[in-house]
Amino acid sequence: xxxxxxxxxxxxxxxxxxxxxxxxxxxxxxxxxxxxxxxxxxxxxxxxxxxxxxxxxxxxxxxxxxxxxxxxxxxxxxxxxxxxxxxxxxxxxxxxxxxxxxx
Length: 103
Known about the structure:
Layout: H1 7-11, E1 17-21, E2 27-37, E3 51-57, E4 65-72, E5 76-86, E6 97-102
Antiparallel strand pairs: 1-2, 2-3, 3-6, 4-5, 5-6
InterPro entries: DUF6916
Protein name: DUF6916 domain-containing protein
Domain DUF6916: 7-94
């Protein structure tokens, strides 16, 4: 299923709130903040354009990283998405900032 995920599946979610299901089964409200294609990372025989997604939690969280689930338009529930926390670096420290890379 992860191979089917394309950047356009996230395009409709930009600026919207989604529920990220964490490894422990709880849900964390997130806002999809940024989407970026990475054409230079594309492998020669790959159909998919590599891309990344930046998300912000809307509530404080201790979650750092792990395999999560998201509902995506056209695809439904997509499991085993590895989500990583990134430093707040001058942003609101009460929120969590996260990154997903699709290669």
